[in-house]
Amino acid sequence: MENKGIGQAGSLESNDLIVTVNLMVGEELDIELESTVKEKFGKQILRVVKETLEEQEITKGHIKIVDKGALDFAVRARVKTAVKRAQGRDI
Amino acid sequence: MNNTVKNAIGREIPLFIEGIGKLKAFQGAYNNMPEGLKHGTKLTRAFKGGEKCLWDLKDSLKKCGIKDGMTLSFHHHFRNGDFLVNQVIDEVAKMGIKDITIFASSLQGVHKPLIEHIKNGVVTGIETSGIRGELGEAITKDHILKKPVIIRSHGGRPRAIAAGDSKIDIAFLAAPAADRYGNVNGVEGPTACGSMGYAMADAEYAEKVVVVTDYLVDYPATPVSIPQTLVDYVVKVEKIGDPTGIVSGATRITKNPLELMIAEEASKAVIASGLVKEGFSFQAGTGGPSLAVAHFLRKKMVQDGIKGSFAAGGTTGYLVDMLNEGLFKTLLDVQCFDLKAVESIKTNPNHVEMSADFYANPHNKGCVANQLDIMILSATEIDVDFNVNVITGSNGVIMGASGGHSDTAAGAKLSIVVAPLLRGRLPIIVDEVTTVITPGETIDAVVTERGVAVNPARKELEDQFRAAGLNVMSIEELKAMAEKLTGKPERINTSGEIVGLVEYRDGTIIDVIRRVVE
Hints:
heterodimer; A: alpha+beta; Ribosomal Protein S5, domain 2; 4-stranded mixed beta sheet; 2 helices; 4 strands; B: alpha/beta; Glutaconate Coenzyme A-transferase; 10-stranded mixed beta sheet; 5-stranded mixed beta sheet; 29 strands; 23% strand
């Protein structure tokens, strides 16, 4: 598969999220978070996103999260898949 | 602001608020003793030949002597289909009047135009059961209102009126049908809404009473819900409401399997309590799993041949069916949620209209809530002390309504909260609810899809639940289960500014609502 640099995963259903990553831009990580539960879980979502990106060895790019109250495992899964799609890897 | 006191549930309450006056802190659900006399209105007289019909709202405002600083009252039987609040306040604004307090039984999304009137100083105070939509957001986030909004229960409102805590200068009654001499009923006309229960105390205690209708009928308008003896003026307008907004969406039995599961579990709990027997009484709040409990109790009642005494509160077609099947002797109705309920209250003598005072006022000689055996309640949040929030969202913003929650919880023999363990990512059982509407001492148990927690003060209930095979655990265990899935929620950021006061049904302050900051 071709490396497009941009990948997306997820949905806007309740308890899910959409992750859009663009690995072709920026010198560092720029994470943008919109969430229906930002007041209560904003920090935790960001922490999980950063951890997952670290595991995937992503150090730069624009990451946009639109969250509808997803639990941590869903956040991890959507981030991983979006990154893989951006890298053009088989999933 | 310096002078505060911790109330009986540990919430910090100011003793004085500019523009509102001295406050009394909550002392426990049954401890505040009322004093003094009922509020009185001036004696009046009327002889033959008097004409009450006026041309328009402006005329009625002038005749009632509208001036700066007055309190105008409204009722919410039209829910999101109400036109009257906006029509009256628009007129007040055009006349250059300022500093008005809106004393409403509830406010909805449709009342968003009030935001501009508040910003322009036309409205500086709001007293209500609830606020939905952008108005609540503007009040909590932008602190647009000069005085904190006062949140009252449906029983606390007629109490406050009778006690003279809030003196209504002009009551506006949105009347589905009225005659030229001021008799009103809710069962005829294009905006028929059924019960007029919330408007009755307003009509009785307001200095001036204006009936506004778009459906003028020949004298006398019968049945009479609000009598001519209380009414000063009658105004005929083009339209007082939108019938499609009057019918509430939340009146069918839920199809959501999770909610049905919770409701079934709750019905098992109710049956285990031993209260479901000949002549029992029942009420369920609105919202997913609450009404569905009635559905499961109905099965049990039919199966065992049990007939109940009454079902109360806001009524729906579902309760009407149960009445018609003979499962309840009477419906006591303060507001109709759908057209089937409206039709029933019009035609069935066992479907009885009641005032909010009759329904839930703690400071009269006995309200219906005291006669309830079983009360099923919903919750936005419930904490480990069993305190319940139904007014602010988890983000701290005013979005709900106090309603009859605290009244029925205090009155019923058994009050059970039904709620899912999580809504989206939000745990419903928390360490401390954002805002307390109903104190934990009046809540007996909470039923979720993962387990049932009983208030430790109700040990005998816990034994009954265990004997019936219910999955009983401590409320801390339920909370831990939720947090394991979601993580620990952060605290909302609030400033010191108080944007709302939550008055318990007895007139004491149970909590305050603070401005939410980013």
